[in-house]
Amino acid sequence: MDAAGVEVRDPQTYQLLLTQQCDTLPDRFARQGYRSLALMPGLRHSWPEGTFYGFEQIYDARALAYQGPEFGWWRIPDQYAVARFDQLEVATAPRQPLFVFYPTISSHLPFRPTPPYQADWARMLAQQPFEPGTLAASLARTPDWTNLGPAYTDALSYSFTWLAGYLEEHATADLVMIVLGDHQPPATVSGADAPWEVPVHVITHRAEILAPLQAAGLQPGLKPGRPALGGMHELTALLLRAFDSAPVSSRQTSGGSGSTRLPPGADLPG
What we know:
single chain; 270 residues; alpha/beta; Alkaline Phosphatase, subunit A; 2 domains; 3-stranded parallel β-sheet; 3-stranded antiparallel β-sheet; 10 helices; 12% strand; globular
């Protein structure tokens, strides 16, 4: 999903977009009093695009100050990134409401070694977040480049596990979490001619946010249905309409899911 709500199919269009003055999701939320942040543990260099998108602050790999064992090309486990972000931003008081953009990295190629899940979230912030035996077993599982399927499955399992654990830790929080697929794995995993559709999940207590999304076609539950609801760039406007039409909040726990199409070649920052 491009935070500017513009369809981007190639790098040239993306570079052109960066020269324009667009109203982005971070801009919209900032005007409503939110602190707009990017949590980007895979970012190790300057990212001037962040200025275009309107982020007030970007938490890159250096800012997260990870001291634990390294996993894969991106070093930092997703679970650590969100635990550290909670420490830096969520746990502070008083504070503004937060709009957070978070591209996760632990399910990125080559998928291994996959970090173990740490049920004690506070321990993730220590220099030794894992038991020695558990850590050694995880680091010993290196990529098999001729058979990436099992590693991909393990990486997704880890992603779902830490996400579920985070939601359990924040069960009473007033949050709206939007989880969307970036793109399919390589053809060696997905097979030839895999569709470009990806799932979108909206998780929140706030039924007034879910109602317009379900009216637009998102379905309760975890399994997205077909046909796809539209292109990835259309999701931005769909979400804004849901937020704009929401009446006073209720506390009904629920969730919804749908799918959207990712245009070929749209694996771009942001």
